[in-house]
Design brief:
alpha/beta, 4 helices
Length: 106
Amino acid sequence: MIPEITPRQLKERLDRQENLQLIDVREPEEWAICHLGGQLIPLGELTKAIDQIAKDTPTVLICHHGFRSAQALMFLQQRHGFTNLLNLKGGVHAWAQEVDPEFPVY
């Protein structure tokens, strides 16, 4: 089972200003359309950027629909021992549907 966070749960935690790291694994072209902030590390560049991902802070992995971020999560857990990761269920698309109807979609 992949540890997940729903868009509403993420919004609540962001509103409480919890210490979260947001890592978006989409491509720069997608990030330019819309993003939730945090840091862009495209999935293909993840292995080169392992040292930029905190192991001691809750970290939410984000993509368009939640599939690439789930892949990133499994890779980081299985190959690098991360235990602090959450996948944004449904990605930025779900964020637009469930949290912010003004959020750009593509």
